[in-house]
Design a protein that fits this description.
binds glycinamide ribonucleotide; seven-stranded mixed β-sheet; 217 residues; two-stranded antiparallel ribbon; single chain; globular; alpha/beta; 7 helices; Rossmann fold
């Protein structure tokens, strides 16, 4: 886990090079693109990659003047097949990527990929982990009757939404919430904490001790 926590592999003064992987609308990708467009932000988006050819996330990249790449996922539904996984790894290496940001990427990342970018893969998840891992977590929280929902940025490990937690934010669940209204409120917080987490990593301000991610001020 140490490479990302210590700021990634790059020359002093250079910005951390990100890849954003996503399958859908890409609102989290957008806030990362916007943050990286700020002159003082310590990271830049090298490429946005999707496993869905017509995903809106790719349009967002093109509009921002960032390379947008569709890489077919292969024959499986929930993960990249081994050949596709190698193509993803090669594409990231070719572009000198120092941090992989999952933003609504709806496939499980397996060991070969994680080993290739050890400690340098992070994810935004729409729940207060370890509660409600998996899919449509805001809906899981609503259906369960939770009074507080939220989101988590975490390092990715071999489990499902189980890696060390970088940042979390909570939102109340209101009596008249629907899945849509709750997800919208969770996303407001996602859009705040994801760029913040990237900044902390890019500035080398995180240290991992066991499961705990410790922040240096
Ligand atoms: C986000 O809410 C993100 O937390 C979630 O997908 C949404 C993508 O939205 N991710 C997961 O559920 C991963 N398990 P976006 O495309 O607008 O960023």
């Amino acid at each position: 886990m140490s490479p990302a926590a210590s700021g990634g592999q790059r020359a002093a003064g250079n910005k951390l090079r990100l890849v954003i992987l996503g399958s859908g609308s890409g609102t989290n990708c957008q806030v990362l693109l916007d943050a990286c467009a700020q002159p003082g932000f310590p990271a830049q988006v090298a490429v946005v990659i999707s496993d869905v050819e017509d995903a809106k996330i790719l349009d967002r990249a093109r509009k921002a003047g960032v390379e947008a790449l569709y890489l077919p996922p292969g024959r499986f539904r929930t993960k990249l097949d081994p050949e596709a996984e190698q193509r993803y790894i090669a594409a990231l290496r070719e572009r000198g990527v120092g941090l992989v940001c999952l933003a609504g990427f709806m496939r499980i990342i397996k060991a070969d990929f994680l080993n290739a970018f050890s400690g340098r893969v992070i994810n935004i998840h729409p729940a207060l982990l370890p509660a409600f891992p998996g899919l449509e977590s805001w809906k899981q929280a609503l259906d369960y009757g939770a009074k507080v929902a939220g989101c988590t940025v975490h390092f990715v490990d071999a489990g499902i939404d189980s890696g060390p937690i970088i940042l979390q934010a909570a939102v109340p669940v209101l009596d008249n919430d629907t899945a849509q209204t709750l997800h919208a409120r969770v996303q407001v917080e996602e859009h705040r904490i994801y760029p913040e987490a990237v900044r902390l990593i890019a500035e080398g301000r995180l240290r991992i001790e066991g499961r705990r991610v410790i922040r240096r001020e």
